[in-house]
Amino acid sequence: MAKILIVDDEQSYRQLLSLVFEGDGHNIRTAKNGREAVEMLQEDPAEIVISDVRMPDMDGIALLREARELYPDVGVILMTAFATVDTAREAFILGADDFIQKPFDVEELKLIVKKTIEKQALVNENRAFKRAQREKGSVKNIVGDSDKMQAIFQMIETVAEVQSTVLVYGESGTGKELVARAIHDMSPRAEKPFISINCGAFTETLLESELFGYVKGSFTGANSNRKGLFEAADEGTIFLDEIGEMSTAMQVKLLRVLQERKVRPVGAHEEATIDARVIAATNRDLKAMTEEGTFREDLFYRISVIPISLPPLRERAEDIPDLAAHFVQKFCRQAGRELSISPKTMQILETYAWHGNVRELEHTIERAVALEREDEIQPERLPDHITNYNPERINAEFDLPDEGINLSSHLGNLEKTYVVEALRRTSGNQTKAAELLELPVRSLRHLLDKHSIRSLSAQMRSSSD
Which residues pair with 6 in a beta bridge? Predict the structure, then answer.
């Protein structure tokens, strides 16, 4: 049974249709014109609107527009004694479900209503099925049965239903984008776009034009107007990965967008209203950055309404067997093979520290599947640094001396050593060195300036030529 709103300026039709559809068990309300009908819909939605076309104070066509704005899925059936081809065409263009001419056969109208209800039920069932499949797929992609991951799953389900901004913390490779996608897919915005951008991969100027768009002629190469990603994500979700790499100037512009819910494309004089949920992610300590003055405190509180902290893989080692098996299945399916993991190999996988987290484990399994020719993945198929890993030896190397150490100086020297070694291995190529250290290029350049070794990159490139 459906909630039906009957709209007609003739009382006789309102009474007739009320009797007909109440007799079939439907919940009936009536209105004498479009304006009154809109007010009633605002107070309490209807599943079907049956409306006359010609009425004073908002006709049926205007009511159709208003009803579609309020409830895109509402069924609308229009009636008129003055049917024309143009009127019928306009009604169907605007999304009317059907159109019937007065005087009409009551049984014909009842059949139209029945078909409209069945169509709505089919659409709702299909939408529910697709959403269930997305939810299943999204959560399935995040493998883990540990208590920490179960808490993450519960948090995802909780925050998916609200519209608040989410900040996902986690080391590189922990699956921050998977969490963001799961939140989107389980949210009311699931049918709308999910747009992802890595803020550390663009210069300040490029990032502004990517996020906010630009107008023709605003800079060299701007040959046409282009919408930004915020507008592209309208009614959906925009995922701002590595937000900690954003420049201070861009932070100011982003803060204004989040506060005003409007964007101004580069070179434009007018603003565009946006409705996109923001999920941000970072592998950096934004709170510490606010204290250092490198990240705006007001933006930090704006994006971290709901924080989610992803644990590194070494803190949920009990998930390694399930993750490893998941990746074996994934890459075997792609290769058309069947493999398992030998007990000895699994022991090595569970012992290793996985500084690259789930991403490193995935790449390791991909390599092993490609190299293995037996039925089980053997330890020999793992990289040497994993098979030779000895946590006791590693821990011994970092024993604290009796006399103590200057921790800040020690960590600074260690950081500089790794940066120099990465540049040496890549012959001074900053992009490749940043990839080796799993850092954005912007962060690597910051470290070069911090340790006063920016010229070293050029020297290494020259020596390799």
Answer: 30, 50
